[in-house]
Amino acid sequence: xxxxxxxxxxxxxxGGSSILARFLNYLxxxxxxxxxxxxGYGEMSIVYxxxxxxxxxxxxxxxxxxxxxxxxxxxxxxxxxxxxVSVLASTxxxxxxxxxxxxxxxxxxxxxxxxxxxxxxxxxIGLDTLTTLPYALLRQEGRPKKFASVRxxxxxxxxxxxxxFISILPRVVAEKPHGLLAGIYVKDYQVGYVIxxxxxxxxxxxxxxxxxxxxxxxxxxxxLWKQMIVYSLPLLIVGFGGMINEVADRLMLGWWxxxxxxxxxxxxxxxxxxxxxxxxxxxxxxxxxxxxxxPFFFKQADEANPQRTYARVMKFFVxxxxxxxxxVVLYLDIWKHFIRNKVFWTGLKVVPVLLLANMFLGIYYNLxxxxxxxxxxxxxxxxxxxxxxxxxxxxxTFIPYFSYMACAWATFFxxxxxxxxxxxxxxxxxxxxxxxxxxxxxxxxxxxxxxxHKGITALYGxxxxxxxxxxxxxxxxxxxxxxxEQKELAKMPVIGKYFIPKK
Length: 503
Known about the structure:
Blueprint: H1 2-26, H2 28-35, H3 38-59, H4 62-70, H5 76-100, H6 102-108, H7 115-130, H8 132-141, H9 144-175, H10 190-208, H11 210-213, H12 222-256, H13 262-276, H14 280-300, H15 306-329, H16 332-335, H17 351-367, H18 369-373, H19 377-402, H20 404-429, H21 436-459, H22 463-484, H23 486-489, H24 493-499
Helix pairs in contact: 1-9, 1-14, 3-7, 3-10, 3-12, 3-13, 4-5, 4-8, 4-12, 5-7, 5-12, 6-7, 7-10, 9-10, 12-13, 12-19, 12-20, 14-15, 14-17, 15-17, 15-21, 15-22, 17-20, 19-20, 21-22
């Protein structure tokens, strides 16, 4: 149990700080959906949908390669320096090329009227890329307090300046139209101000990690670099394919949504993006889990019988995300108020589909350890490309008819396919004794409870009745899990004394 506790501790510190940071960022959703029009929010979503694509290209899997090669004693001194020099050189090249082409990129994104959005975004990506390895170094060296403080400060600064530019600055300028701040104020520039706030935060984040960044020694090990690139380049394909799965739907929805006019199409993107964020609990947990799990999995590979540990981690992971699924769908009438603009509520039907899709993605991340520790990263690239192909095919075929519902189902089938393929392929290469029948049952029962709740509330459409019914079903599920896993829970006295029946 100690290894599971160790992972839980790492997830609490590294993942927990990321969860808190991302949650603070998500608090902007009710604010921005209330302050911006549907088309404006959609325009912002298109900009931020493009960022992950470029982040993947800029980092090209080097973070995972850093963790992998740092485990080898002969590489410990050179790996950070070599990786950092590589990232610094490539970031300067990529940033320069994209800045030269920023007007063309703005045209592709349908942002011809504001090409400066793209320029700001490219600089943000460059700064964030330069902090990738300093963040990884903090995780590798076990320095969670600084890691957490920098992450949370970054989001806090973003929130502060977003609120300042959108709410405070207009009031100050209205009161003093000839004041100093009037010279920098631009009316109806909410999207631009959100991006500028992000740029300020990224600059401060880089300064906070300056000690780690400037600790780099220009000792470039060419042989080691070639080995790391061979390992990491397939992860570039994995990451790029993953971004296609995650954000291409918003770009394609902006092109082909079955509504007339650019503003209406951006409004569809805004509805879908706002409702997508209601998968917040699962999304944040998965992101936090990955932060703690990746270095943990690599270290665990050198221990006795790591497969057993991986299987147990998977079980607890599935139980957790199944509970989170129920917490969201059974209380969706509460969660929907997270979106201030009620016009966006028309898209709430995508939420259960997207929650399940993200559950599949989280399981896939757990499964992917087989190709990372066996150095078969090209296999991961093929799996991700299959998922990306499914995403593009379904979106291309069905968005013109079903709008954002096609996006949701494309995500569902893409991540579901990747999960299944990775499991089957991985068991042939690196067998892990996953209790897959039990895990499928946990998820299936959670989905069944959702449909039961949906059916009951359809007959008795009362808010409080829905709330009580959802709570009863959630407690029944918790009780069921406790009875099935009572041996494990018995080792956790604080939990066990409430849920394990006394003999």
